[in-house]
Write a structure and sequence with these properties.
2 domains; 9 helices; four-stranded antiparallel β-sheet; 4 strands; elongated; 192 residues; alpha+beta
Length: 192
């Protein structure tokens, strides 16, 4: 299907032809009006007017349309990830109050956390300090470390000691949670 001279091709024509190509109709219904507004928002008018070939624009439009899905995405984290992230948030609060240096172990973090007001703990999402620093999966206290090998101090700071079925959860001071097998866990632990 030839689309003519790209320099004279505007978004309305492109949307109509894409709609026509996709659905066999020229009138605007279905995806075409939203496609037109999306393309205008992305500045496609200026891209097309500078002579970029129409097939390239159609590929981009197709990619945009293919990425749309009506399936709901579950953004909720599992309870064990939420739990370990609370310990990581507590670690970050400690770091903020100690000139950017995190605690070296769990007892140092726990001692400091018990001096915090109930309001400050609630802001972090913690009701009970002891429970917050104990893994619900293995029942063991979390291992608390300072990240090593990173000059900016970023990395995993909370680890499960035993884990479950050979998998240890680890939380970073940036809010991510990862699963480590036994070998990765041993390699990740700082050398004492």
């Amino acid at each position: 299907m030839a689309f003519g001279n790209p320099s004279r091709f505007d978004l309305t024509t492109m949307a109509r032809r894409v709609h026509s190509f996709s659905y066999g109709r020229v009138e605007f219904e279905g995806a075409a009006p939203s496609l037109l507004s999306l393309l205008q928002g992305l500045g496609m008018r200026s891209i097309i007017s500078y002579g970029i070939r129409t097939p390239f624009a159609l590929v981009m439009v197709g990619c945009l349309l293919a990425g749309c899905s009506k399936k709901p995405v579950n953004l909720e984290r599992p309870a064990e990830e939420v739990h370990i992230l609370k310990a990581a948030k507590l670690w970050n609060a400690y770091k903020s109050g100690h000139q950017g240096k995190g605690p070296t172990n769990a007892s140092e973090l726990k001692t400091w956390a018990k001096t915090l007001s109930k309001q400050k703990l609630t802001e972090i999402g913690i009701d009970d300090v002891d429970a917050a620093l104990t893994s619900p999966r293995d029942g063991q206290p979390y291992l608390i470390v300072r990240p090593t090998g990173n000059p900016m101090g970023l990395g995993n700071v909370v680890y499960e000691k035993t884990g479950l079925h050979g998998v240890h959860k680890a939380a970073s001071n940036m809010g991510s949670v990862s699963d480590l097998n036994e070998d990765d866990f041993k390699q990740a632990m700082p050398k004492q």
